[in-house]
Amino acid sequence: MNLSKRYKIIIFTLVIFGLIGGGFYIFFKKNIKKAEPFYVSNPVATSTPIKVVATSNEATPVSTAEKAAVKDVIPVGTDSFVVYLSASSTEKVASDLLDQGFIQNQNDFVSAFNSPNVSPGAYKLSKNFSITDTVKVLKAKPFMKWVVIPPGLRKEEIAVLLQNALGWTSAQKKKFITVDTTYSKDYIEGVYSPDTYLVPVAESTSDVAKRLISKFNEKFAVYLPQFNSENIKWTSALTMASIVQREASGNADMPLIAGILWNRLNQGMALDVDSTLQYVRGDTGKGWWASITVLDKKTDSPYNTYMYKGLPPHPISNPGIAAIDATLNPAKTDCLYYLHDSNHITHCAATYDEHLQNIQTYLKN
Description:
Order of helices and strands: HHEHHEHEHHEHHHHHHEEH
Radius of gyration: 41 Å
Oligomer: single chain
Mean pLDDT: 86
Helix content: 40-55%
Largest sheet: 2 strands, antiparallel
């Protein structure tokens, strides 16, 4: 083959390979996604392109919502601080905070809090909190709240107080009434001690019930040996105390009412008290303790002490210590009857005729 012909073949071959290579280049450029550049620890050791990241001295912008979220975060402390019901003024709280080492300056706190009172309850604080953080915590809801239970309420009324204070749902209130306070016939009523409690908001309804029973056991323990020595069952004593609580006009006349009711029982008389009927009737729209009617007295129930002699099956309220003490230490009296006049003064009588005279004297006018 001569030289001219050999050059032509070489040139033709190069052209063919050039066309094929160009075709492949166009195909891959259109159909294969360009690979992302990557970072390497040693850019000098490789020829792979290094992605350059733009930098700035300016902080990343924070949205208004993010700023509000940060502002609203309530810090959680490690120590409990209690604001008492009788000492919730900002000045008193500031003084207590200072005494306990939570703040360094009373005036700074009062100025920052800018409100006349702090909601009573228990809060989680720390001694390394700033004034701002301390104010945030004390302006938020306490993790424990005060519940005041006065004497003489039935458990349904107590449940309402607990619901209002602790934010219970209707289901939680119902559970307290129908489940947590019914596991024993001796604990249906009467043992949910009246007192002032500081209760964790997150505490379960059953644990709240146990808390009230524990307080009752603590108080009643003092009286139990005395009732036993007089051969009075503690359940009977508590039932009588619950009636005394509801029948008396105040603590002062409880011993007299207890003496009269014990006299009736000891003489085989019916107790003839409205409060037991009120209990069995319940709330018909006028409150749990609304006045009874003639029709109510016809109710066939062991709680109808006009119809049946003796004590009802269990307490009708949760009595206070004054009623329990009066039941154990009743006044010595010959009276079998009593009434309260319009000024809540109690008048008693030994005979029914004397009682009718008291009605004429103190109630008819």
